[in-house]
Design brief:
Keywords: Membrane, Transmembrane, Transmembrane helix
Order of helices and strands: HH
Shape: elongated
Strand content: under 5%
Structural class: mainly alpha
Mean pLDDT: 83
Distance between the termini: 48 Å
Number of strands: 0
Low-confidence stretches: none
Radius of gyration: 16 Å
Length: about 45
């Protein structure tokens, strides 16, 4: 089980595409949270 996790982590770390999508996903999540918290456009 530990070997699988480390293998996966290595695979993710060696994939810039996955890192890129991870970054986009995290930034989108933050934007959604901020927008939802402020409730700008939705009353």
């Amino acid at each position: 089980m530990t070997n699988q996790i480390t293998k996966y982590q290595r695979f993710v770390m060696m994939n810039p595409v996955i890192q890129f999508f991870k970054l986009i996903y995290l930034s989108l999540k933050v934007l959604l949270v901020v927008a939802g918290g402020h409730g700008g456009t939705r009353g």
